[in-house]
Design goal:
This protein is an alpha+beta fold and about 475 residues long. It is about 30% helix and about 20% strand. Bound molecules: flavin-adenine dinucleotide (FAD). The site of flavin-adenine dinucleotide (FAD) has 41 residues, from helix 2, strand 14 and strand 19. It comes from Anabas testudineus (Climbing perch).
């Protein structure tokens, strides 16, 4: 069996001569093979049958009050919340099957504490939806696992920040505990605590299941009258100019028909830029590779909390009796040519880039050095210049809403943001102070500057470990 560090070394040297199949660094290629080809942890897909050649899963209506584009975390949460708020003449269009873009391979971590009161509220709502509301409404379990979360502090400054998070959490009733290194060792015996200053333990954090969450959300939305149509690609968005010269959404075009609608929600993930172009709307995000590796079984790891080590910029997610190890690199890989054919697909992992997480992970849980790697998961995710999502009505076209650019937090923010988007569409404004996420925070000259977006997105991705805990945003 290949152990984590030696396996990585072997793979990296294999890349140099000759290239090994799972780590071709030069080609940056992706596979269009289905899930199991790379041993991805989620064995179930939402539907086993290949519908690609069979057309849309339902007939298209002639008109709708709202058309949501994209059946990932954001699209499913948005249609669910719209339906729950009484907008039932609503249609979700997904070009492939639900979750096919980024959502199906998410790590699904949900931390409840962030250094912003609005974000704490958004996260709390997601947690309520997936751990309680959906189950009560549908009788189905979303796959939520409450295994807890542990933030690592290697210095006083970091622990002080966590104490502030704890105080903020108290206002919202979120249970958390500052633990000493010895208490941390009691909780997580496989952890190296020699270099720890302390930790913040949040017992009700946990892990979301993407397939279970999206299936349950769409079931609940459909039960209220919403229509979910898979295998139906949006190919155009018609825009009209009204008597006052204002541009407004008119209809959504697909190869299977046109739906008249005054309102479109762009929840198309890394494809959102293309959907924006169809309506003349700028969507300032970039697509990057984002990855984790799944280890072989680890004795004694079962039921441990998820771990986030901000100083080392790595996370360790519980995966049954194994771990998923991921992080934020200083030199992420951009996906410049976003392909329309990419569905339930992954990229080959670039070990030269991923290697930087190995030392931090092994330092935190030393048994990893002797643990094999079962699979690699490297997929596309969208990032923005300030590491905040893009939401709200586009200034260019009335009725064109954005719900995209989720910077590797679209599962945990999905519920809160889905509810805010629904409120925004129905009432013309969100319920919470969403200025930090509002697309209008970007001035026109910035959204025109692709280089600026790319450079800032790179910077905020690479600094994510620090931004997450230390920034007051
Ligand atoms: C490796 C990795 C780990 C992650 N870990 C976490 C985590 O632990 N916690 C967390 O909160 N987030 C995590 N994320 C991020 C999270 O998974 C994403 O932010 C989220 O899934 C994005 O959801 P979405 O709905 O915006 O996009 P997507 O899931 O990509 O959905 C967009 C959908 O739009 C569809 N579409 C595109 N074009 C069209 C068209 N023309 N017509 C119709 N449909 C179209 C696509 O097929 C796709 O299904 C992770 C991401 C990655 C890559």
């Amino acid at each position: 069996m290949a152990f984590l560090r030696s396996a990585v070394r072997r793979m990296v040297s294999a890349v140099r001569s000759p290239p090994a199949p799972i780590c071709r660094t030069s080609t940056r290629s992706y596979s269009s093979e289905p899930t199991r080809e790379k041993g991805v942890p989620y064995e179930k897909t939402l539907k086993q049958q290949d519908q690609a050649s069979t057309g849309p899963s339902k007939p298209l209506p002639r008109s709708a009050d709202v058309v949501v584009i994209g059946g990932g975390s954001l699209g499913c949460q948005t249609i669910y919340h719209l339906a729950k708020m009484g907008v039932t003449n609503v249609v979700l269009l997904e070009r492939d099957r639900l979750t096919a873009g980024t959502t199906w391979h998410t790590a699904g971590l949900l931390w409840q504490l962030r250094p912003s009161d609005v974000e704490v509220e958004l996260l709390a709502h997601t947690r309520n939806v997936i751990s309680k509301d959906l189950e009560e409404e549908t009788g189905l379990h979303t796959g939520w696992i409450q295994n807890g979360g542990l933030f690592i502090a290697s210095n006083k400054q970091r622990l002080d920040e966590y104490k502030r998070l704890m105080s903020l959490g108290k206002v919202y009733g979120i249970e958390s505990h500052v633990l000493s290194p010895a208490e941390t060792k009691d909780l997580y015996p496989l952890m190296n605590v020699d270099d720890l200053y302390g930790t913040l333990y949040v017992p009700k954090d946990g892990t979301m299941d993407p397939a279970g969450t999206c299936t349950t959300l769409t079931r609940a939305a459909s039960a209220r009258g919403a229509t979910v149509i898979e295998n139906c690609r949006v190919t155009g968005i018609q825009v009209r100019t009204d008597d006052l010269g204002v541009k407004r959404v008119k209809a959504v075009e697909t190869p299977h028909g046109t739906i008249e609608t005054p309102c479109v929600v762009n929840c198309a993930g890394v494809w959102a830029t293309k959907l924006g172009e169809m309506a003349g709307v700028k969507v300032p995000l970039v697509a990057m590779h984002h990855a984790y590796v799944v280890t072989e079984r680890i004795e004694g790891i079962k039921n441990m909390p998820n771990v986030r080590d901000h100083d080392a910029s790595v996370y360790l997610r519980l995966q049954g009796d194994a771990l998923s190890v991921g992080g934020y690199e200083h030199n992420p890989i951009f996906w410049d040519e976003v392909s329309d054919k990419f569905a339930f697909s992954l990229f080959d992992l670039d070990w030269d880039v991923f290697m930087q997480h190995i030392d931090g992970a092994i330092n935190r849980v030393p048994v990893l050095e002797q643990t094999g790697i079962k699979s690699t998961v490297c997929g596309p995710e969208s990032f923005t210049a300030d590491h905040k999502p893009l939401m709200g009505e586009a200034p260019e076209v009335r009725g064109f809403f954005l719900g995209c650019g989720f910077n590797s937090a679209g599962m945990m923010l999905g519920g809160g943001c889905g509810r805010e988007l629904a409120h925004w569409i129905i009432h013309g404004r969100p319920e919470k102070d969403m200025y930090g996420y509002d697309i209008r925070r970007f001035h026109n000259s910035l959204t025109d500057n692709q280089r600026w977006i790319r450079e800032r997105s790179h910077e905020s991705y690479s600094n994510f470990g620090f931004i997450q805990a230390l920034s007051p945003r």
